[in-house]
Amino acid sequence: MNIGIAIKSIRKKLSITQYELADKCNISQTSLSQIETGVKRPSQKTITKMCTVLDIPESIIYIVAMQASDVPESKKSVYELVYPSIRNLALQMVNSEHRDLVTA
Fold first, then answer.
1. What count of other Cβ atoms lies within 10 Å of the Cβ of residue 103?
2. Which among 18, 34, 38, 61 has the fewest CB atoms less than 10 Å away?
3. CA 68, 61, 11 angle in degrees (round to 5)?
4. Handedness of CA 25, 10, 84, 41 (dihedral sign)
């Protein structure tokens, strides 16, 4: 599971800079960069804050963060069949109207 890549994907989908998101979440831009690159794992409190700021359910972050390596070998064929659609659906729940919440 790569939470950092998920946060970055959602942030970029909303056209929000690292600085804007970090500022609203009360963390440094450097910390956010480290989270997005996988150098640092965000605390649950930080994930919750980001989801609040972005106005998205936490489950969206976890769905987008899921990777094939998270799935047992016996379930990989189902994962490969279903996951792309689930991920796209989750990302559709993140839309440009949410950008105004962060940049306002």
1. 12
2. 38
3. 110
4. negative
- Token couple for 23: 């500022």
Taking the C-alpha atoms of residue 15 and residue 70, their distance in angstroms, rounded to an integer, is: 28
Q: CATH number of the domain that 53 lies in?
A: 1.10.260.40
Q: Of the candidates 2, 39, 42, which has an alpha carbon nearest to the alpha carbon of residue 22? A: 42
Q: What is the pLDDT of residue 96?
A: 58
Q: What is the pLDDT of residue 103?
A: 43
Task: Give tens-digit pLDDT for 19-42.
Answer: 999 999 999 999 999 999 999 999
DSSP state of 40: S
| Domain span including residue 66 | 3-103
Please, what sign has the CA dihedral across residues 27, 33, 38, 39?
A: negative
Could you tell me the pTM of the whole model?
A: 0.80
Q: Dump pLDDT digits (tens) for 48-79.
A: 999 998 888 898 899 889 988 999 999 999 99
